[in-house]
Amino acid sequence: MRRIRRIKDLQSRRFSIAAIRAMVTGEGERIADLFVDEGEDLRLDLDELVGRSGADPGLAEALRDAGVLRDPQDFGRTTYDGDDLEMMRAMASMHRMGIPVAALRAFGQIYAEGVESIQQRIVDVFVTGDPAELDPSELRSLQSSAAADSATMLTSMRRLVDYTHHRTIQRLALDAVAAGELPAFDPDATDPALPLP
Fold first, then answer.
1. Of 23, 122, 129, 136, whose CB is crowded by the most CB atoms within 10 A?
2. How many secondary structure helices (H) and strands (E) does the chain include?
3. What letter does residue 73 receive in the DSSP assignment?
């Protein structure tokens, strides 16, 4: 009975049949929280997503071509959700700032390819313990801890990614200033885009 309720819950949240099957069998139940998004109550098809985001359809197509805006079935969904809308609104905002679609597509493709590679390496740590060189008991501990509270694990990992991304951009921007590739700016100023006198 518990399994049937779980299946009905996942169906109501618009997960695909393949995702539901994966989540209600064995280890899949333990990782179900990885597929829960804050904006999951919002359900949009592609046209609705583009319309609500204020994005140009050409921008959405470019992001799909870049591998960023993927078909929801690729991640176990039947529709787009709030995370997709938030990303599209951000891209539309940059486009309105004057960033060309070609540049946004390139940013998207770089991130999509880079993140895919990074995330595969993260999955490898969970599956095999490499490259962390975990012994079998450490690997079991990692797997059981992550499975016991995958929602906390996902939130913490997202914070790690955001932090690393932000600090890396800061460091690379300062390196580019030092090399004379960007104008000097005060990173502690209210508006860091203002050049130093």
1. 23
2. 9, 0
3. G
Q: Three-state DSSP class for 47?
A: helix
Residue 150 gets which letter from DSSP?
A: H
Tokens 């996942």 — which residue?
10
pLDDT band at 150 (very low <50, low <70, confident <90, very high): confident
| Rg of the chain over all Cα atoms, to the nearest angstrom | 20
The kind and range of the H/E element at 46 are helix 46-53
DSSP string, 91-147: HHHHHHHT--HHHHHHHHHHHHHHHHHHHHHHHHHHHH-TTTT--HHHHHHHHHHHH
Nearest to 42 by CA among 30, 53, 31: 53
Residue 30, pLDDT > 70, answer no
The pLDDT of residue 19 is: 55
Which single residue is written with the structure tokens 């919002």? 42
Tens digit of pLDDT for each residue in 57-93?
Answer: 999 999 999 999 999 988 888 899 988 999 999 999 9
Q: How far is CA 19 from the centre of its chain?
A: 18
pTM more than 0.85: no
As to burial, measured by CB atoms within 10 angstroms (0-12 exposed, 13-18 middle, 19+ buried), residue 52 is: middle
Following CA atoms 63, 11, 144, 27 in sequence, which dihedral angle do they give, to the nearest 10 degrees? -100
- Tens digits of per-residue pLDDT, 8-20? 666 565 555 655 5
